[in-house]
Specification:
single chain; 178 residues; alpha/beta; Ribosomal Protein L13p, Chain: A; 4-stranded parallel sheet; two-stranded antiparallel sheet; 6 strands; 15% strand; Ribosomal_uL13_sf; structural constituent of ribosome; Ribosomal_uL13_bac-type
Length: 178
């Protein structure tokens, strides 16, 4: 086998580390995208019984966005196996308790219901902000594209760029906006 073929062969079977920025993203639509990388569906060697998936690092899980009034209406169920041990937790309460849990539960739900699910979840690393440990960050070699465009806030645009933007009209000096 030539060196080029050996490199291609190694690249196909190697576990790659991907990073995904969850800022202003819907966690349930993001979960389907993350699931593809955890399972290895993007690789040409994928087989349902072959565990060839990659690692995924999710950052900014504190800044996720649920659609409409899902923060108040979406409920997470838990039961501790005792009589009357059932609890329902609203999404905003769960997110306030732990900002990574909603993304984790969404990805867990998106994965297939078989014995490989725990192995997939061990390769998922979720962080509430963009502080990722250095040893984990040095392994990252690919960035997963966000599904939803995140606009830049006006107070984050430099003043020179704002001043150079063409104006439609200019107000007189003594004009008072009401």
């Amino acid at each position: 086998m030539s060196l080029v073929r050996r490199g291609q062969h190694w690249g196909t079977f190697a576990r790659i580390w991907h990073i995904y920025d969850a800022m202003w993203q819907d966690p349930y639509k993001s979960a389907d995208l993350i699931r593809m990388y955890l399972m290895g569906l993007h690789k040409p060697i994928y087989h349902p019984l072959n565990e060839c998936g990659d690692h995924v690092v999710v950052i900014n899980s504190k800044e996720i966005a649920l659609r409409g009034d899902e923060w108040r209406k979406r409920v997470y169920f838990h039961h501790n196996t005792y009589h009357r041990g059932d609890t329902w937790t609203l999404a905003w309460e769960l997110h306030k308790k732990d900002p990574t849990l909603i993304v984790e539960k969404a990805v867990y739900r998106a994965l297939p219901k078989n014995l490989l699910r725990r192995g997939y979840m061990q390769r998922l690393h979720i962080f509430p902000n963009d502080q990722v440990p250095k040893d984990m960050l040095k392994n990252v070699s690919n960035q997963i594209k966000q599904q939803r465009y995140v606009p830049v806030r006006l107070d984050h645009i430099p003043k020179e760029e704002r001043d150079s933007f063409p104006q439609i009209m200019s107000y007189p000096e003594q004009y008072i906006l009401k």
